[in-house]
Specification:
Blueprint (H helix, E strand, L loop, with lengths): L15 H20 L5 H8 L3 H18 L2 H9 L1 H19 L5 H29 L5 H29 L4 H4 L1 H15 L13 H24 L8 H20 L13 H17 L5 H9 L4 H6 L2 H17 L5 H22 L6 H16 L2 H9 L7 H30 L5 H7 L2 H34 L6
Length: 481
């Protein structure tokens, strides 16, 4: 493991709250950009004349790039230093945002989103490492709850901001807005973060890195290709799926046996860490994986504008943000085996009620009421699960542990998004998907609305099943400590 001595702390960095607020600002950029395009998919399908299976790569490509670069962050912290690495990552993210705002076709947009992801993928795990090192263990729950504002409120506020920019200005400003924010974060972090003291840097696990990134990309490509090919038995689908599974298997083997693995999976031998990570994986797979559905539902089925579709997600965002602040304190006092199953059940109840009400004429007040439960359950689950997983990590294990937790969340979000897009595309009651819907007249579109709503309703079942499964590892956590 990398051994770092305690770095000298500048005066401005002596307040953990100062460090946390700067990290929140930086993480909000990446968190919003994971879902800000969800509200734009309908508009992008018109601008680029692209099907949903291709459009989802604007979101999935970004998430996969995050997942590809996250495992190298623990190695890079020891090699470069946390502060210097954070500043570099923020600069790459801002540059990718600028380029994405100038994209001329769907292929260039996906490529620039990948560049964004390479920069953004470092921000959260490196930021968590900085925070864990700067805050004493008994205060980590509260600081993590503040940092969690970016993890949950960012993705939920993204569609609202994105909808406004799409309707009032242009979809390009969804990305260009990150440039001034990135400049401010770089300036503040350079002044306030603790100075770097380089320690003993372990060698980079190149075989592990080469196995993980292509493995994840091949798996997600296989899932999306299965949607186009009508099943998993196609010659176009099986090779990438099998190759991806083999590469991921190789990565797991190295993580358990190599002397200096890219990601130390031996941390999962700790029961509390493993159960909390499993809870996080199952919950995030359904929770974040289905975030593209509600903006599309409001636009495609109900005929709302991008701004209205984003604004209808405000109850979700408010409930998650407010609940998160309470949850950060509760998880310090209530045993996780008692608390987390209850918070997951709140989210599960909200998603189930929302799924049952999704139709062509459901009253908005009822949908927003259930979204309050959905957001409260998410805000009460995500950051407490991360806190349970990381609060007992030693200083030496902090980079590897925070990286593994972030990789889990990012990877399952990408996979969940791809699966949800494939399911929805397969269930849409019109050949040609979103492109064909845009060519229909108003009367024909209105006649299809009930069947379109059924497609969304059935896709939401994915989140309900996965959240129900997340209760199992959560209930196995300690019920006494």
């Amino acid at each position: 493991m990398t051994t770092l001595t305690a770095p000298p702390v500048r005066a401005a960095a002596r307040s953990p709250l100062t460090i946390t607020l700067i990290l929140v600002a930086g993480s909000v950029m990446t968190a919003m950009d994971q879902t800000i395009v969800n509200v734009a998919l309908n508009r992008l399908s018109v601008a680029f004349d692209a099907p949903l299976a291709t459009l989802q790569w604007v979101a999935t490509g970004y998430s996969l790039a995050l997942a590809a670069i996250i495992p190298a962050s623990a190695w890079a912290v020891g090699r470069v230093g946390a502060q210097r690495l954070y500043l570099t990552a923020a600069a790459v993210f801002a540059a990718g945002s600028l380029l994405a705002g100038t994209a001329w076709n769907i292929e260039s947009l996906i490529a620039f989103r990948v560049l964004q992801g390479f920069g953004g993928g470092m921000l959260m795990p490196v930021g968590m490492t900085i925070l864990i090192r700067a805050v004493e263990p008994e205060r980590r729950g509260r600081m993590m709850s503040l940092l969690g504002l970016a993890v949950l409120v960012g993705p939920l506020a993204g569609p609202t901001l994105g909808g406004y920019l799409i309707d009032a200005v242009s979809w390009r400003w969804m990305f260009l807005i990150n440039v001034p924010i990135g400049a401010a974060v770089i300036t503040l972090a350079g002044r306030c973060f603790p100075a770097d003291v380089r320690g003993e840097a372990r060698p980079l696990d190149v075989p592990g890195l080469l196995a993980l990134s292509p493995g994840l990309a091949l798996l997600v490509y296989g899932v999306t290709a299965a949607g186009d090919a009508g099943g998993f038995a196609s010659a176009r689908v099986l090779p990438p799926l099998l190759a991806g599974a083999a590469l991921i298997g190789l990565f797991v083997r190295r993580g358990l046996t190599a002397q200096h693995p890219l990601l130390d999976l031996r941390l999962l031998r700790d029961r509390s860490f493993a159960l909390a990570t499993a809870t996080l994986a199952l919950f995030a797979l359904g929770y974040f994986g289905t975030m593209l559905l509600s903006p599309l539902y409001f636009q495609v089925v109900r005929g709302e504008s991008a701004l209205a579709a984003g604004a209808l997600g405000i109850p979700f965002a408010l409930a998650s943000g407010l609940t998160m602040q309470v949850a950060g304190r509760l998880i310090e006092r209530v045993p996780p085996g008692r608390y987390l199953p209850c918070s997951i059940l709140v989210a599960l109840t909200g998603f189930t009620l929302f799924m049952l009400q999704v139709d062509a004429h459901a009253p908005y007040w009822r949908l927003c009421a259930t979204m309050l439960l959905m957001g409260a359950g998410g805000g009460g689950t995500m950051m407490p699960a991360i806190t349970v997983a990381t609060r007992k990590l030693s200083r030496e294990d902090a980079p590897g542990g925070s990286t593994l937790v972030n990789l889990t969340t990012t990877t399952v979000s990408a996979i969940g998004t791809a699966v949800a897009a494939v399911l929805l595309a397969a269930l849409l009651p019109v050949g040609g998907g979103l492109q064909a819907l845009h060519r229909l007249g108003p009367d024909a579109h209105a006649a299809l609305a009930p069947r379109l709503a059924d497609a969304f309703q059935h896709t939401y079942l994915l989140a309900v099943v996965l959240m129900a499964l997340a209760v199992i590892p959560a209930a196995l956590l300690s019920r006494k400590e």
